[in-house]
Specification:
With 205 residues, this protein is mostly helical. The chain has twelve helices and no strands. It starts with a helix and ends with a helix. The N terminus is likely disordered.
Length: 205
């Protein structure tokens, strides 16, 4: 991992340097640090997922950095979702679920399922931690959520790693923008196809 200077040029930020130094320090652990940092971001949303993804892409290379970041972020989101879902019968969560504002959101999520969850999870700076919690509180199908996370996070993480230091690169690089948009369309279509297959299977059963 001898890319520290390149990292500093890309994102001149003290936190980025600390993250990159951490990855460099624990290089002997292989992909574990690169997976762990995005994983804990799901529990601590104030941590900058974008910084972790960019650091991973520089430390491990674009492909491996994307894969490690994606694995960590997906596992983190699913873990948070399952924890909230399993705590759903606790008095605190029952009270939260009955809140009028929360009810509107959870009803909307339950009604639309995969589609909106996927779209929201595609965007690099969407509040994915909030989405995980809301989905956990709602009664949305687990498989629908898992599918949305797996496909949506792949777009989110890839766009972060591919674009680089700034979301503004979308405007500066039309080709990159087109690639991301095409990927969103393809993954959305694939996800909807799988969702319909799941619904058909459930009806048959």
């Amino acid at each position: 991992m001898s890319l520290k200077n390149e990292g500093n040029d890309l994102l001149n930020h003290e936190l980025f340097e600390k993250v990159f130094d951490l990855l460099d320090k624990y290089e002997q652990l292989g992909p574990l640090p690169g997976i762990f940092l995005p994983f804990i971001e799901a529990f601590l949303p104030f941590l900058p997922l974008f910084v972790f993804v960019v650091a991973n892409s520089l430390a491990y290379g674009l492909l491996k950095g994307f894969i490690y970041s994606w694995i960590g972020s997906v596992l983190g989101s699913i873990t948070v979702f399952l924890i909230i879902r399993n705590l759903g019968n606790k008095p605190l969560f029952i009270k939260i679920r009955k809140n009028k504002s929360v009810l509107k959101i959870t009803d909307w999520v339950e009604e639309h399922g995969f589609g909106p969850l996927f779209i929201l999870l595609c965007f690099p700076f969407s509040p994915s931690s909030v989405i995980n919690v809301v989905a956990g509180i709602s009664r949305v199908n687990k498989l629908q959520f898992f599918l949305a996370v797996i496909l949506g996070k792949s777009i989110m993480i890839f766009s972060m790693a591919y674009i680089g230091s700034s979301i503004g690169e979308f405007a500066k690089s039309p080709i990159r923008t087109i690639i991301i948009l095409i990927s969103i369309a393809l993954f959305w279509s694939f996800g909807k196809y799988l969702e319909n297959k799941m619904k058909q299977k459930i009806k048959k059963n």
